[in-house]
Amino acid sequence: MENTLSTQQQAIIPIAAFAATGDLESLNRELNQGLDDGLTINEIKAVLVQTYAYAGFPRSLNALAEFMRVIEQRKSQGIDDQEGKRSQPLAQNYNARIQGEQNQTQLVGQPVTGALFEFSPEIDEYLKTHLFGDIFSRDVLSWQDREIATVSMLAAMTGTESQLKSHVNMSLNIQVSVQQLNQIQQILAEKVSLDASQKLQKILNP
Hints:
This protein is mostly helical. It folds into 2 domains: 7-83 and 137-204, Up-down Bundle (AhpD-like), CATH 1.20.1290; 95-136, no CATH class. The protein has 12 helices and no strands. Helix 9 crosses helix 11 (178-192). Pfam families: CMD.
């Protein structure tokens, strides 16, 4: 288990946070920094697409549009950013529900059930198929990278403490270390907001 985040993983944190909160001015700055720090265009796109599952399509679409502007501006300045590897097509026999349930169980460490999902089977279906199936089955980002992004998004948004706690536990379950989670908290304090940092800190140090 690693004790520190890579430079690229550190760059994911404010990108994910500002995409989720819709702060496009700050996002623009961090997108430029992320590219300078070695994130590829496709890695950043994957983070911004994932934003829809936590903050909705409007925030995701706006963040992707802002990223398009950043790339064009950098091209006009003669900067040739790395596109990076593209997401590989999913298997022909891919079934989002089946794969999503497998991914969710592996991330959480056990099958996920509960009264909420009995009350609304539709939300259970969407979580399994769209989030844990379609998004987490894509290969441009590792699961650790995706959880770093998710924790950053949920810490930056309001009213998401329960989900943040769940994803902190998922992160630990897939070998994101306590030291790395503490590093996320420090970067949130430095680059995003004290509120986001403190929300994560309360979960890490109850």
